[in-house]
Amino acid sequence: MTKENKKEGDLMDKIVSLAKRRGFVFPSSEIYGGLANAWDFGPLGVELKNNIKKLWWEFFVQKRDDMYGLDAALLMNPKTWVASGHLRGFSDALVECKKCHERYRADILEKDKKENYICPSCGGIEFTEPKQFNLMLKTFLGPAEDEAHIVYFRPETAQAMFVDFKQILDTMSPKLPFGIAQVGKAFRNEITPGNFVFRTREFEQMEIEYFIKPNEWEDRFEYWLSQMKEWMKLVGLDESKISYLEVPEHERAHYSKRTIDIEFEFPFGKKELYGLAYRGDFDLKSHQEASGQNLEYFDEKASEKFLPHVIEPSLGVERTLLALLISAYREEKTEKETRVYLDFDIKLAPYKAAIFPLMANKPELVKKAQDLFHGIKKSGVYPIAFDDGGNVGKRYRRQDEIGTPYCFTVDFQTLEDDTVTVRDRNTMNQERIEVERVPEFLLNKLK
Ligand code: GAP
Question: What gap in Å lies between CA 154 and CA 74, rounded to an integer?
Fold first, then answer.
């Protein structure tokens, strides 16, 4: 292991440990020994996740005037997956090591000079022939567990946006170009889940299907790439860790005519963070043929009907969260210790501020701090934390570790002149501010 690799491995361990210790991400059903590669988002994790989704929705849907939101059912008519090609083509090649019987996705295994796969767990080089393994999870609807009652957990949110395309046309009368956007769960029976929340079998996607005139696809593709770049800046991802991969034809999904994978330098290697794909009219055409319904768009100006083409920016929520934790993690040597803080933008920070009474055993300080705490919430700034445990130094460290940008301390001077200290997470600088100005101070930061 090189020094650099070890450092990166250490970083991942530190992030996983911080995430668990501070209530961001817990192993799922841990009291029963857990469920491999399933994770629960704790009180701070759910705030962070919701903040990511809210920011995405604002940026890609609400602030624009060409977007239509959707929240479709997760279980869809199984004919959807026949038409979309997922039942036939959504599979990975699976191989099994003949020595230790571990199973792997063939495409991620390293090969030796003789082109033999090498088993990462035992070093064996004898494998079974690759077998196609469909990644869709299935279950039965209703009491009968037979073929006729099989339904699939959607492997992408995208299909509902094609299947509901006609409903959006009929109800909203949108004009091209326009998009349909959705945030929601997707499920894949991944062969090799792992790397914390990077690859799981249950995850969330934030997807847009952007419908365009066919001859405009190249410009629109570039435009959406630029929007994704803006998004990554907005959310605070480390730009130096981001790169762009033009996916070659033989590696693209069955529906795609061009794909760019946006990759992020995770501590475990450079991996796909997001995808941008030109899906042509593959999906609308397939659903039109399979359903017998006309899904064409009528262009009034040109007086012609046609199937729009699609550009698809597809983003994973958990991968954003992980990339954000990695981007925001800071260690800083102070005289006595190493200070750890998460450099989140206030919009993403789970707590926008924390309020402390200098001493927990002085009722007049506690009362004043509680009044400030409730006053801030009433002004519309939340969630915020109230902390009176341990000394103030420890409280600062706790808030630093979870990325709280500002801490306000009620001290003895507050009782005299109605001012509190405000301490900045990144600089650790403190200044005094009038109590009545605190809500306004935070509201300005949140703008
Ligand atoms: N509709 C297109 C689509 O689903 P994808 O590249 O398979 O394309 C899009 O998935 C995004 O969803 C990925 O870039 C990633 O952010 C996220 N994603 C995919 N599989 C995932 C998994 N097993 N665990 C966590 N996130 C995943």
Answer: 6
Superfamily of domain 3-82+142-325 in the CATH hierarchy:
Bira Bifunctional Protein; Domain 2 (3.30.930.10)
Mutate to test the pocket of ligand 1, among 161, 319, 320 (most ligand atoms within 8 A of CB): 319
For a ligand 1 pocket test, name from 189, 314, 320 the mutation site with the most ligand atoms within 8 angstroms of its C-beta.
314
**Using CA positions, which residue lies closest to atom 4 of ligand 1?**
156
Alpha carbon of 182 to ligand 1 centroid (Å): 14
Question: Per-residue confidence of the chain (447 residues) as pLDDT tens digits?
Answer: 566 666 776 999 999 999 999 999 999 999 999 999 999 999 999 999 999 999 999 999 999 999 999 999 999 999 999 999 999 888 888 899 999 999 998 888 999 999 999 999 999 999 999 888 899 999 999 999 998 999 999 999 999 999 999 999 999 999 999 999 999 999 999 998 999 999 999 999 999 999 999 999 999 999 999 999 999 999 999 999 999 999 999 989 888 999 999 999 999 999 999 999 999 999 999 999 999 999 999 999 999 999 999 999 999 999 999 999 999 999 999 888 899 999 999 999 999 999 999 999 999 999 999 999 999 999 999 999 999 999 999 999 999 999 999 999 999 999 999 999 999 999 999 999 999 999 999 999 999
| 185 Cα to the center of ligand 1, angstroms | 11
- Ligand 1 centre distance from Cα of residue 315 (Å): 7
Rounded Cα–Cα distance for residues 122 and 101 (Å)? 10
Question: Is the whole-model pTM more than 0.70?
Answer: yes
Alpha-carbon distance 44 to 359, whole Å?
26
SS3 state of residue 317? helix
Q: What is the number of the ligand 1 atom nearest to the C-alpha of 319?
A: 16
Distance 205 CA to ligand 1 centre (A): 7
- CATH code given to domain 351-446: 3.40.50.800
> How many angstroms separate the Cα of 264 from the Cα of each of 108, 270, 348, 367, 403?
17, 5, 19, 47, 22
Domain-wise residue ranges, the chain? 3-82+142-325, 91-134, 351-446
- Dist. CA 427 → ligand 1 center (Å): 37
What SS3 state is found at 308? coil
